[in-house]
Amino acid sequence: MTGTAASTPPLLVRGLRKRYADVVAVDGLDLEIWTGECFGLLGPNGAGKTTTIEICEGLTTPEEGEVLVLGRRWGEHDRELRARLGISLQETQFSEKLTVEETVRLFRSFYRRGPSVDEVIATVQLQEKRGSRVGQLSGGQRQRLALACALVGDPDLLFLDEPTTGLDPQSRRQLWELIERFKADGRAILLTTHYMEEAERLCDRVAIVDHGRIIALGTPRELVASLSAEHVVEFAVGPAARLDEGALQAVVGVSAATRRDGTWRVRVAELHRTVPALLDELHRQNAQLTELRTHSATLEDVFVELTGRYLRDE
Amino acid sequence: MTSERHGWLDHPLVQLTLVRYREFFREPEAVFWVFVFPVLLTAGLGLAFRNQAPERTRVAIVEGDGARRVQEALAHSADIRAEVLSNTAAAQALRTGRADIVVAPGAGGPVEYRFDPDRPESHTARLQVDDALQRGSGRGDPIAVKDDRVSEPGSRYVDFVVPGLLGMNLMGSGIWGLGFSIVDARRKKLLKRMIATPMSRTQFLASFVLSRLTMLIIEVGALVGFAVLVFGVPVRGSLPSLLAICLLSALAFGALGLLLASRTQTIEGASGLMNLVMLPMWIFSGVFFSSTRFPDALQPFIQALPLTAVNDALRASMLEGAGLARLAPELAIVAAWLVASFLLAVRLFRWR
C-alpha cells in the first residue's frame, strides 16, 4: 500500500460552495478524511451530497473552496491523480452489450497497476457472471460491477456515491460486506448515502448533510449519544384526544416530545422507567392509545432531531 | 495482489476499439443497416432500373371506319402494340396511362392523334405511329440509315446509383455510428464514468476512428463487391484512390457525427438533429439522381454539401477513372468539412 504521508489526509475540503442556477447545492462545506477510515455523507436526496462528492472526484468545479485529494489539487496532473482514485458514480449504466469480464477488462486497461481482471471479479463475487452480458445482470450485480470498476486501479481513496440505492436488502448486505473488506485493507473511503443503517454499519465517521451544509459530524455512536437518549418511543392516540405537551415533557426520563403527522416521538434514556410513567400520564389525560413503538435511537433520529424531517423525505 | 498491465491486448486503445466492435456487431439492427441494407438497395434499384428494350408503345385506336386499316399499318412496326377500343374506352386508356396515344382514323378526313404533350412517351408514340402510318401509306425514305446499337457499362442507372449509395452509406454510418454511441454513453453517464478514470480522452476518440476505418473496409467491400460481381458496375479508377476517397469521407462524416453529438443529451434529440442534417443531403446531393437537376440558384449550396462532393468524387473515380489529382476540388470540400467539424466538435464537446 502506497500511503500518503501521515500528515496529509487523503481528502481535505475547505469552504466548498457550488450553486446551480438559483439553487445552492453546496453551501460552505468542510471535510477531512483520515487514512484508513470510511467517511459517510448522510443526508436526504437533494442535500448536496452528490455535488460534493463529484467536486472531490474532479468532475465538477466548485465556485469557492479548496479541495486537496491525496495532497493534490485538481487541474494539475489530473491523470496521475485519477490513477490513484476509485470512483463509483450514482446510476452509471455500463454498456449492456458487453460482458462483465469485458467491462472490467476495459476499465482495468486504463490503469497501469492494479489487481488482475480475475482477481477483481472474484473480489466482487461475480465469477459466475463473468461471461454474462451486463444487460442481464440484476441491480445488485450491476452495483457490484460498478464497485469492481472502481477497484481495478488499486485505489488509495475510494468514492462511492449511493452504492446501494435501489437494491433489495440482501443485495445491500452483500455489497456492505464487500465494502467492509476493502475498508479492512486500510484505505480511505468517502461514501454518500441516505440509508442510516448503511452509514451506521460502514462508516467510522459520519457527516449529516442538509441544504449543502454539515449539520453534525462524528462517529455514529457519538452522534446518537448526542441525543442524550438511548431510545425513541413513538405513539399515536385517538383522534379526539388533545394531549398536554408540557405534561408529557415533564414525565420522568423524557428528554423531548414532538408531534408529527399525528405521531408523537418521545426520546427517553431508560425505557423500563419512562414507558410506564408515560402510559400513566396518557391515561391521566384520558387519551386512547392507538399505536406504541419503541426503538433504539439511530442516526435517523439524529437527523429528525436536527431538521424536524425524516431522511427519506423527498 | 497488484500486477502490471501486460500484453498489447490490454492496451487501452485496443480495449476501447474492441468495445466499439462488440457494441456494433452485437446490435443486429446496426449490422443490417450498415452492411446488408445498402446491398439490398443496390439489388433492388439495379433490378428495377435495369436497362431493357424500351417498352412497346401502346396505341388505342378508336373503332369505326378505317380502324382496321390503321391497325394493319401499325402491325408492321415491332415497337407498337395497338388495340381497337370504343371512343370512351380509348379516352379512359389514355387518361389512365394504359395507352400512350389515341388514334382516331376519322371517316375519310384527317387521322387524328390525341395525346398529352407533357408525357414524354406520348411524344415518342406520336412520332412512331405517324411514321408507321405514313410508311404504310407508301412514304419512302430519301436517305439510307443504319442502326448501331451500343450498350456500355458505366452509362446505366445502376452504374450511376452505386457510387451514390456508397456515399450515402458512408454518411449514414459515420454520423449515426459515432453520434449515437456518444449520445448513448453520455445519457447513461458512461462518458462521465470514463473520464473519472485515467483514460486518455484522445485514445477514446481515436478508438472511434480506428473502428470506423476497419468497418469501412467491410462496408465498401460488401457494396462495391456486390455491385461489381452482380451488375458489372465498373471501377475504373485505382482501388487505392477509391479507398482514399472513402477514408476521407468516412472521417469527415465521423467528425460531423461527433459535432452533432457534442452536446446532445437524449437519443431523441440526437436523432432529430442527425436527420435534419442528413435529409438535405439525401435529397440534394445526387444519391439517386443527378444534383444538376436542381435550379442553378441552389447549386452553390448543393455543391458545398459534403455528400455532393463525396458522390461526385466517387462517381468520377469509379465511372470515369479520375485520379485523385483531378478530384482535388471535391476532396478539398470534404477535407474542409472534416477539419471544421472536428475543431468545432472539440470546442463544444461535453463529457457529461
Structure characteristics:
heterodimer, A: 314 residues, alpha/beta, Rossmann fold, Alpha-Beta Plaits, 2 domains, six-stranded mixed sheet, four-stranded antiparallel sheet, 11 helices, disordered N terminus, B: 352 residues, mainly alpha, abc type-2 transporter like fold, four-stranded mixed sheet, elongated
Describe the structure.
The complex is a heterodimer of chains A (314) and B (352). Chain A has helices spanning 49-56, 78-82, 100-109, 117-123, 139-151, 169-184, 196-202, 220-225, 245-249, 271-284, 299-307, and strands at residues 11-20, 23-33, 38-42, 64-69, 85-88, 113-114, 157-161, 188-193, 205-210, 213-218, 231-237, 254-260, 263-268, 289-296. With 314 residues, chain A is an alpha/beta fold. Chain A has 2 domains: 11-224, Rossmann fold (3-Layer(aba) Sandwich), CATH 3.40.50; 228-296, YebC, transcriptional regulation domain (Alpha-Beta Plaits, 2-Layer Sandwich). In chain A, strands 5-7-8-3-9-10 form a 6-stranded mixed sheet, sandwiched between helices. In chain A, α3 crosses α4 and α5 runs parallel beside α6. Chain B is mainly α and 352 residues long. Chain B has helices spanning 12-25, 28-48, 67-75, 87-95, 120-136, 157-187, 190-195, 201-231, 239-260, 267-284, 299-304, 306-320, 328-348; strands spanning 3-4, 57-62, 80-85, 101-104, 112-114. In chain B, α6 packs antiparallel against α8 and α6 (157-187) runs antiparallel to α12. In chain B, 62% of the residues lie in helices and 6% in strands.
